[in-house]
Design goal:
Urease, subunit C, domain 1; alpha/beta
Length: 194
């Protein structure tokens, strides 16, 4: 009886899978999943802006199909150190120089600088401007150092200033920052101690 229930479940799942509809199916590509494994042949089903299925989707319906035979299908690439915020804010958020190369995400606020503070204001401003890429904001070490120490940054920070910097980093992280960026060769970060 257990085997029959399992078989029935499999049939139902298979029936549901064949009835799926997608906005886009990329067919027959060499899929690289980002894990470091060799490619495998598969179809990729997309609904909205999300990949929702990878496998044999030959019996599915889709509004659009792309034949990827002989081509690689990869996860989106990350641009790890970018200064694109001014371009986005100037109305160039389509960023074709990134999107046509497969980039989907950019790390911004590089070199220890958060040009707009608080980060929640930067996030809201960039969202209104619109960007073709997902933007990962960083909390700028130089920004919080200057905010905590004022103009007198060419020295080690006091314990009270370090506590102020910790509070600013915490706020930046709460506002959507992903991590801390720094540029230890730049002022004011070059004066920081461990």
């Amino acid at each position: 009886m257990r085997a029959l229930a399992s078989l029935a479940t499999t049939v139902v799942v298979a029936t549901i899978a064949t009835a799926q509809e997608y906005d886009l199916v990329i067919r027959g590509g060499r899929v690289l999943d980002g894990s470091g494994n060799p490619f495998f042949y598969a179809d990729v089903g997309v609904r909205g802006d999300r990949i929702v299925a990878v496998g044999d989707l030959s019996t599915t319906r889709s509004a659009r199909f792309i034949d990827a035979a002989g081509k690689y299908v990869t996860p989106g690439f990350f641009a790890m150190h970018e200064h694109i915020e001014p371009a986005i804010l100037s109305g160039y958020g389509t960023l074709p120089n990134y999107t046509t190369q497969g980039f989907t995400t950019a790390i911004i606020d590089a070199d220890g600088r958060s040009p707009v503070w608080p980060l929640s204001r930067q996030r809201d401003t960039l969202t209104r401007a619109g960007s073709a890429l997902n933007l990962v904001m960083m909390v700028g070490h130089g920004t919080v150092r200057a905010m905590a120490m004022g103009q007198d940054v060419e020295r080690p920070a006091t314990p009270a200033e370090i506590e102020a910097m910790k509070a600013l980093v915490r706020r930046g992280m709460d506002d959507g920052g992903f991590g801390l960026s720094t540029g230890l060769e730049y002022n004011p970060m070059r004066w920081a101690k461990r």
